[in-house]
Design brief:
The protein is of the alpha/beta class and 262 residues long. 38% of the residues lie in helices and 16% in strands. The chain has one domain: Vaccinia Virus protein VP39 (Rossmann fold, 3-Layer(aba) Sandwich), CATH 3.40.50. The protein has a seven-stranded mixed sheet. The longest helix is centred in the first third of the chain and has 24 residues. The N terminus is likely disordered.
Length: 262
């Protein structure tokens, strides 16, 4: 894999790391894949603080998804930019139709570790090429996860994808994390993704931009580092993480927005 696709190894390592420690997120599949892949990360990409952040972010997405799936037992689950993530195993399909979408080389790698089932399908496509939606039933509601992907879209590309998703389904609930504009500018010089060769990303300060001609409306912002998860850290690590990587410090760099289709 090259370029943006290599960034998937950073959250994979983070989830495998916290899972192995028995905190925040149980992810046996991430541990298995990381053990076998052996992709060499360096520098900030292997920071223990980043692993805690990656684990918490994924756990927050998982909890939100579980809640939405319980509220709508017939909704389709759509994970755009799935990478090697095992969310389908951590959450379970619970008889929902579930679709994971990512670049062809990512899905090729993913199929070494995941099997499709009656409920679970992998789609190999650049998410910006919205023709892949033709492989997903349209006469349904959808719950959409976009974790760690929006920053690789230009604003117009993101709006185009959201518009296509909104048009395709009856009703959509969407959770998406974003870099801030400050974080995007800083990323050129200091970001773990630099360690896998990526320096160009996009920031989004105003979630209402995602309402423009997309069919979505902004609902609310979520906390990616809740106190309940920080509490699983030990001693000084808990104190340092809360002061340096959570709260206002975190919001300066990352935001987590929920949307729904109008």
């Amino acid at each position: 894999m090259t370029g943006v696709n290599k960034t998937l190894y950073i959250p994979l390592y983070g989830k495998a790391s916290v899972s192995k420690k028995g905190i925040i997120l149980h992810d046996a599949k991430a541990e298995e894949i990381w053990e076998k892949e052996g992709f060499r990360l360096k520098g900030k990409a292997k920071s223990k603080w980043l692993t805690y952040y990656m684990g918490m972010r994924s756990a927050v997405f998982d909890n939100w998804l579980k809640e939405k799936m319980q509220q709508d037992e017939h909704a389709i689950v759509l994970h755009i930019g799935c990478g090697m993530d095992s969310r389908v195993l951590r959450v379970g399909t619970n008889h929902h139709l579930w679709y994971d979408v990512d670049f062809p080389d990512v899905i090729e790698e993913r199929k070494l570790y995941y099997d499709e089932t009656e409920d679970y399908t992998m789609i190999a496509s650049d998410a910006r090429n919205v023709e892949w939606l033709q492989d997903v039933p349209s006469n349904a509601n959808a719950i959409v996860i976009m974790e760690g992907i929006s920053m690789y879209f230009q604003i117009e590309e993101l709006q185009g994808l959201l518009q296509a998703v909104s048009n395709h389904f009856n009703k959509v609930a969407l959770l998406m994390d974003c870099y801030t504009e400050f974080a995007a500018k800083a990323s050129k010089y200091k970001n773990p993704i630099n360690d896998v060769g990526v320096t160009e990303v996009v920031g989004l300060d105003d979630p209402h931009i995602c309402e423009e001609n997309t069919g979505f409306t902004y609902v609310k912002e979520h906390d990616m580092t809740p106190d309940s998860m920080i509490g699983e850290l030990q001693g000084m690590e808990r104190t340092i993480f809360k002061k340096v990587f959570a709260g206002k410090m975190s919001q300066k760099m990352y935001r987590l927005y929920e949307f729904e289709s109008v």
